[in-house]
Structures are given as C-alpha cells and as structure tokens.
Amino acid sequence: xxxxxxxxxxxxxxxxxxxxxxxxxxxxxxxxxxxxxxxxxxxxxxxxxxxxxxxxxxxxxxxxxxxxxxxxxxxxxxxxxxxxxxxxxxxxxxxxxxxxxxxxxxxxxxxxxxxxxxxxxxxxxxxxxxxxxxxxxxxxxxxxxxxxxxxxxxxxxxxxxxxxxxxxxxxxxxxxxxxxxxxxxxxxxxxxxxxxxxxxxxxxxxxxxxxxxxxxxxxxxxxxxxxxxxxxxxxxxxxxxxxxxxxxxxxxxxxxxxxxxxxxxxxxxxxxxxxxxxxxxxxxxxxxxxxxxxxxxxxxxxxxxxxxxxxxxxxxxxxxxxxxxxxxxxxxxxxxxxxxxxxxxxxxxxxxxxxxxxxxxxxxxxxxxxxxxxxxxxxxxxxxxxxxxxxxxxxxxxxxxxxxxxxxxxxxxxxxxxxxxxxxxxxxxxxxxxxxxxxxxxxxxxxxxxxxxxxxxxxxxxxxxxxxxxxxxxxxxxxxxxxxxxxxxxxxxxxxxxxxxxxxxxxxxxxxxxxxxxxxxxxxxxxxxxxxxx
Length: 534
Fold this sequence. Notes:
This protein has 534 residues and is α+β, with helices and mostly antiparallel strands. The protein has two domains: 7-212, Hypothetical Protein Pfu-838710-001, CATH 2.40.320.10; 265-522, Alpha solenoid (CHAD domain), CATH 1.40.20.10. 52% of the residues lie in helices and 16% in strands. It contains 18 helices and nine strands. The protein has helices at residues 21-26, 28-31, 54-57, 106-112, 178-187, 200-209, 229-246, 248-253, 257-276, 283-322, 329-357, 360-374, 385-388, 395-412, 421-441, 447-479, 491-508, 510-522, and strands at 8-15, 39-49, 61-67, 70-76, 85-93, 121-137, 144-156, 162-174, 194-195. An eight-stranded antiparallel barrel has the order 1-5-4-3-2-6-7-8. A hairpin with a 6-residue loop joins strand 6 (121-137) and strand 7 (144-156). Helix 15 (421-441) runs antiparallel to helix 16 (447-479). It is globular, with a radius of gyration of 27 Å. It comes from Azospirillum ramasamyi. Residues 7-211 form the CYTH domain. Pfam families: CHAD, CYTH. Residues 226-533 form the CHAD domain. This is Inorganic triphosphatase.
C-alpha cells in the first residue's frame, strides 16, 4: 500500500464502549506517545445521494461537514481491498449543500459519474463529539504519525430515526500502515475493542433504507498475470477476512442461517489458502494461523450444524407428515417435539457463536492476520529456493497448484462407487480445497472453461454435502441431550423417522451420485499442464 497522501485516507476503526474512552486515552500506548495536547470538536456531517442510491451502491461517499464557520465537501471512494485505505478529495464550499462544480480531480469525477446537483438529496446526518490526540510511533526514519480520534455520537435521519456510534479511529498521517495494527493491538490490551469494518456512510445508508444486515457470499477475486506469489497471498487472505467480517452482523443477529454459513465458508477458504501456500509460510506462523482458524470454526460449527438439521433435514420430514391429512398424527406430534428440542439446542449454539465473535481472542485474530499481511510476515525466514519464488509471478505457480489439488481429489475418489461414507467425506474435503483453489486463481484463465469446471465440481460437492449432512444428523441426535437433560416421549421415534427418511433418499440417489463423479472426472482441465520442474 502506498503511503498516505492528500488524496488518500488510511485508517483503522475500532468499535468501543463510551465508558472505556478515559481508560484508552490514558493508556501508555497513547499518553506516552502524545505529541501535543488533545483537542475536542463537534463534527456535523450531512451525507448526500440520489433517490435511487447510486452512490451508495458503488460505496462512494459524498458529504458536507460543518467546520467552525465554514463547510468542507468530501468525496470518498470505496475502501481498498485491505480495508485500510480509500481515495479522499476535499474542498471548501459555501454552505451545507454540495457544489459539484468545485470538484476538478478526474478520479473523483469518475467516481461520481453522470450526476447533477438537482438529483442529490440529504440522506442522513452524523453528529459526533470527537477528541483528537496525535501520537508518534517509532523513531527516526521509521517514525509514524497517527491521529487517534475518539468519536461518540449519533447518525440521524430526517424522520427522527437514529443510531448511536462509538469508535476509536486511527488515521495514518505519515509512515507505514503497519503501525496502525501495532497501535490497535496495544489498545486492545487496555479495553475491549472490536474491529469495525463499516464506514459511517455504510451504517447511515443501512439505517435510511431500513435494510437488515444480509449474508454475503465471497466476491470474485481479481489477480493479474503479473501478480507475484506474495501479492496473491496478500489479496487472497484479505479477501477471506473481508468475506468473514462482512457476515458478522447478520450472524450475531442469528435470524438468517446463511450468516454463520458464510462466516464458516470464509474460514474454510482462509484455511485452504494458508495450506495452499504453506511452503512459503514459516512453520510457527502457519501453526498460529491454523490454530486460530480451527478455534473459530469450532465455535461456529455447532450453530451451522443445527441450522442444517432444522431447515434441510427435519423440516421436509415434518412438512410431509403435516400434509398427510391426519395420517400419522402421533408421528407429527413426535416430530414437533423433536423440533422444539433441536431449536433449543440451536439457540444455545448461537450463544456460543456470539461469545466467540465478541471475544478479545476474535479481535486479536483479525488484527493479527491483518498485521501479518500488511507486514508481509512470511518474509521472516531464511532465503531459500522456495522463499525466492514469493517474488515471481503467481501464474507460473497456479497451474502446478491446481493440478496438485485435482490429482488429490481424483485419488481420494478412486473406486468411488464402492467408497464407504467416511472416505466419501474425505473426498468432499478434497473437492472443497480444489474448488477454493480454482476460485482463487480463476481470473488468471479464460472464464468460460473455468465456469464449466466449477459447475461440475459444485454439483458433485452439493451431492456429497447432503450425504455428510445426513451423517452429521445422526451425531447431532445423539448429542441432543448431552447436557444431562432427558428426552421427551416420542423424541427417539421422531429421530428414527428423520434418519430413516433421509437414508432412503440417499439410497435412491446413489446412481445419480456416481454419474456426477464420472462427469467430474471427464471434465476438461482449464489450466495448462504444469512444467514437471515447477
């Protein structure tokens, strides 16, 4: 990342509790590095957009902020892939209304697009009490200047609705962005803090539209043929973290099962990426990364398992019996009893999810991985034939890694028609790793054959996933009362009905599953045959 300049804003936001502000301001991490007295001011900013929210859709911000007796108009671009930086263009205006004629920078004009002032409407206003303390980290040429802003206030809509905000904002004025992570990690030892990836603009637009937090799938990753191996590692890891954090809010709410599912997908993608590039990562760093990923995935796993059981396994059986016009009424009652017990288990599992996401360990994990990427931590190793390849184009390695993953999947599925459930589960894991590798590198290849390959891979994955869900259901039903509680009358019978129902379904689809395996084996590779010397 380039150093901050007049058209760039490089910052890290941390959600905080207002009662911790005094403790944080007095912390040695800030007090001992202060370069002058703290200053306080009130910031009143009005954010503008069109009726159809064209700017918000592109994550572009247009605001006018009252500063003393004057006004400053600001245009901001969408955050960079690392979440730290974004473009910023400011100019003085004469009132709280935007004046687009004063924007002359081509990049800023391109962000706004074909926009006229008559289309703009005030969407929301933020009123923030800000206390600023400038600090310096390091000495000499390595010194970094950071503005630490303690923000407490509200986002207000014209109709009176509002939302509180409280955060610590670390903005880099000069020096290396890695110091933002250094300071953030120190502050988390003083008071509970959480990494805040949402901008004030994003929160304001969400409040204005009344849109609930939505689960988001991973965005397509873009790598260029000139991207180095270490550049690919950085982009892939950042993309996985962004995918996970983007689903935090909906997961904490617990209303949409897709939230925790997408967080787990992001973690699996991250672990797969770390394993894919393992030869380039020092052993101690690899062990820490995998250990933390396992911890978090384990914290999210039970909630996802009970979501799947309730929605995909139990629900269709209950629906079928409920629609049977009174036939099997006792079974219906038993299935309803089982559903209530499973729902109680699911709710307890979500308590564990919230505890993990709100924990200091989770914040330390996010900041630790972010710092590792920003500092290119993998360079901390002796020079070797492997480490030198970090600076070579990734395209030369992608073919080799894809071929390697594909061969592993083929070996795992050898004799597929006769594989027991446990080995099919191992095949499913191998296919997941292959698919993630394909998604990481797909932008390096012609899209049409890649898309065809992914479609065949996904069809087989989904079918094997259902087999795994049925196997998991058996385990879950045994764990339903592992807390010492007693099962209600009829629960065992209902459990038998659910397992039997899906076991029959698995048997009925076996021929189609074998056909999917052969379709996958016959799918043409989209990558070139790797050089044996690679």
